[in-house]
Amino acid sequence: MAEEEEAVEEEVQEEAVEEEYEQESESGEELPEGVEEEDASSWRDLIQDEKLSKHAERFTDLDSLVKANMDSRVKLSKAVVTPGKDDDEESWNAYRTALGVPQDVDGYDFPLPEGVERTDQMMDGEDKWSNIFLDNNVPKATADALVAEFRQELMSMQSDKVAADEEFTRRTEESLKQEWAEDYQKNLIFAARASEKAFGESFEDARHIETSDGNFMLDHPVFVKMFAKLGREMGEGSIGSVVTEGERDSLVERAQSFRDKRNEAMGKGLTAEAQRWDQKELAVLEKLHGTDPIVGTSTRNL
Fold it and tell me: C-alpha 160: how far from its chain's center?
């Protein structure tokens, strides 16, 4: 706080000030010694200080000058003045209370959007910002506005990321479908099973590794095609003869639904939920496993 700031003024009740003003008005103002009643019209001439005399030119008579002083006192009685460095803790507490600053960090709120789970990392961040707010005497109303605006900006950023992820997924699927044609789902199963075996217990962690542009590494076409090829070479089986065409379409639709929900959960930061959708998707894809050899456009010569 700036050293030049004045000490906290004692709170003056407006009624008391006005009463004092009325009493002064009733009692009347005595003229300076040696000044006759008829000389009252020249009251400005009685002011010795040049700056005060210049200030007095704004007023037409003594009543308007006194009224301006009265109005200023009333406003000052309601003002919240920052304490100085030498003021005691009681003065600072009164100042914080007048501003609306909570007594401790628990007085600040950090509401979460519906459906978002509070994590340990979030709680650490909230504790950090609560202390920053308190140390800088940030009123709760101001903190609430800042938190709400920050949350809204985060949600907007997450929405943009979800949209970007969905567009990346759409372009990736479109590219692989054109390349693999009717063997698209078969190759996806080979890729999923091969990557799961390759990463072992670290598979779930690997599933959520992101590239520099924020997309999942294992969803990148380069990795999908690599693991599809690896899965076939590892003898993971073949696909196609176990389920009927109708059953196959239904399972493919369910797998896509689970994949979409997984992406949506990841966009919201719900890692545990995203993992559950991963497992559901893999379970459905496994039901598509059959005995036909894989014959993708890019793998006919393998």
Answer: 15
User: What's the CA gap between 104 and 173, in Å, rounded?
Assistant: 52
Residue 197's alpha-carbon distances to 192, 206, 217, 230, in angstroms, are 9, 12, 17, 11
What are the pLDDT digits (tens) for 232-251?
A: 777 544 444 435 566 767 77
Q: How far is CA 126 from the centre of its chain?
A: 11
Q: Rounded CA gap, 170 and 164, in Å?
A: 10
Each residue of 7-53: pLDDT tens digit? Answer: 334 444 444 545 555 555 455 555 455 544 444 457 888 888 888 88
- Residue 210, classed as helix, strand or coil, is strand
Residue 173's Cβ-count burial label (10 Å; 0-12, 13-18, 19+) is middle
Single out the residue of 165, 161, 186 nearest to residue 176, CA to CA: 186
Contact 224, 188 (CB under 8 A): yes
Token pair, residue 42, equals 């020249």
Other Cβ atoms within 10 Å of 43 Cβ, number: 16
Task: Extract the tokens encoding 93.
Answer: 């507490």
Side-chain-side CA neighbours of residue 10 (13 Å): 3
